[in-house]
């Protein structure tokens, strides 16, 4: 039984870890969004932007260390990896902002519902970007 578990862990470890830290990143994003939008009464677009930026910082360090186990070393290699990560997450930030604008301003859907839908799309896009462009194995 233990060998079966180890086999599946080795096969799906990255995906499981991405899911775990993705949930944590999403909680950081939603928590900050709620704090800014509902408690501090920051406009929902500004709250979306700032919550996403801080969640991206959290995600970089967790994804680099525990999900994709990056082996990049040296200032140049880490700077390039970080630049690719932030560029890819910049794309998903724009996706999030567009989802929020279309959902809230154009379709008049509650911002919390749109945030959930947007988060699902962003998490999927972020995994693909990270796997293919940021933390790709050499």
Main sheet overview? none
Low-confidence stretches: none
Oligomer: single chain
Question: Helix- and strand-based class?
Answer: mainly alpha
Quick overview:
With 138 residues, the protein is mostly helical.
List keywords for this structure.
single chain, 138 residues, mainly alpha, 4 helices, 86% helix, 0% strand
Structural description of this entry:
The chain has 138 residues and is mostly helical. The protein is 86% helix and 0% strand. The chain has helices spanning 2-39, 44-67, 75-106, 111-134.
Please write out the topology:
Blueprint lengths: L1 H38 L4 H24 L7 H32 L4 H24 L4
